[in-house]
């Protein structure tokens, strides 16, 4: 297991937190694949699909909450999606026989940094009631 989930990683939105945990599970599955090519292919396509769905969900929430740094956050999502697409591409064309430990560490580090330091920034716009936000902004 590469990442051990802690409740401290929750941002307080049930659907988003579930998504974050699923992606952690998939990264752990990749780490535990031990050369099982079918498992790697399955996990990589799941990661790609799930991350796209999750980012779309998050971006819709940020847009609905009028999060002011939406564009910068969307750009970060694009960066991670590109990393996954490139990894999948390299895997499917067998330019890599296994997923290197270093590659997984980079993915895991990106994901955990994002959910611990970037996602909490939108929480006041997405979770707090509008009236509270207005008071904060006043
Ligand atoms: Fe995010």
From TrEMBL:
Protein name per its UniProtKB record: Hemerythrin-like domain-containing protein
Keywords attached to this entry: Iron, Metal-binding, Oxygen transport, Transport
Annotated GO MF terms: metal ion binding; oxygen carrier activity
Family note: Belongs to the hemerythrin family.
Species classification: Bacteria, Pseudomonadati, Pseudomonadota, Alphaproteobacteria, Rhodospirillales
Record has Transit peptide as a keyword: no
Ranges for domain Hemerythrin-like: 14-126
InterPro entries given in the database record: Haemerythrin_Fe_BS, Hemerythrin, Hemerythrin-like, Hemerythrin-like_sf, Hemerythrin_metal-bd
């Amino acid at each position: 297991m590469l990442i051990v989930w802690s409740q401290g990683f929750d941002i307080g939105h049930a659907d988003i937190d579930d998504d974050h945990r699923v992606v952690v599970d998939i990264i752990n599955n990749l780490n535990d694949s031990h050369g099982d090519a079918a498992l790697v292919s399955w996990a990589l396509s799941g990661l790609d699909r799930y991350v796209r769905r999750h980012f779309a969900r998050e971006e819709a929430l940020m847009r609905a909450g009028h999060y002011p740094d939406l564009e910068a956050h969307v750009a970060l999502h694009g960066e991670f999606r590109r990393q996954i697409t490139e990894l999948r591409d390299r895997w499917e064309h067998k330019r890599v026989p296994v997923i290197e430990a270093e590659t997984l560490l980079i993915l895991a580090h990106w994901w955990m940094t994002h959910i611990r330091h970037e996602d909490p920034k939108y929480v006041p716009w997405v979770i707090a009631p509008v009236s509270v936000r207005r008071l904060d902004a006043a």
